[in-house]
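Researcher: Please predict.
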Amino acid sequence: MMAFCPEIKVLDASIRDGGLCNNFRFTDDFVKSLYEANIAAGIDCMEFGYKSSKKMFNPDEFGKWKFCDEESIRAIVGDNPSPMKIAVMADAGRTDLDDILPKSESVIDLVRVACYIHQIPTALKMIDDAKAKGYQVSCNLMAVSQVRTEDLDAALQMMAKSAADIVYIVDSYGNYYPEQMAALACKYVDVIGAVGKEVGIHAHNNQQLAFANTIECCRWGVNYLDATVNGLGRGAGNCYSELLLGFLKNPKYDFLPLLEFVQHRILPLRAGGTLWGYDAPYMLTGLLNSHPRSAIRFLKEGRIDYARYFQELNDGE
């Protein structure tokens, strides 16, 4: 736990996961400030948002980071002269592959294909497409806590044979404890690492375990670590970037630029009404291994009847 691990890569998912809190309506100034703070902090990769289909999602209802057009990203990074890589997420079934340009025409480096277990065939086609266009590619299998063991084993074998460079453990519902995460990390590393691919972790903080689960995975050979500044992300949020950088022993990382960003950008964002972070309703959905959408609705309605809400969740309402 005290060793320096040069293989570790930290990916900032603040704009993409945080965009689920405000319909991706971050200003260019906010995103530019985060880009600069991440570079100063030594972050390895920054995810700018989704490559969502404009046929499925109305651009008038979302900010630009729901779609991540090339010109939108270049308005922030230019040709990205920094060593930090640029990533976007492509949801299976919600992305037009034609919107992903060849790598030679794009400043994007990494395409993260996100899917549920039943979408694996679609994800494989997307992975092949992005890889053929010249990108580094990951597969982010979501809601893994709800996947049957035999289905997960089969999916990992398929991912091991795929063109994906990285395969992510995604604890979408914040359900796992460190002991469970350790076993899962070993399973992924045994299958995915055996063929020369990397494994990543994307944790949610429903039970205030996103950081603990992330560093537990790190102990077992998971080298790609997702985090967000101040935990910014859907519902309970994610592993805190500044907390993770403070833990890692790589001298290239410096959490002070992120603390500056929290002071000047995150606190005003919270004051303006954007909500995320641990709360009792998210704890309950985490315990029950269920999607946080009902907890998000509970909080928006101003409810505080936690015991009744727990009963509703148990009753399947």
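Model: The chain has a mean pLDDT of 96.
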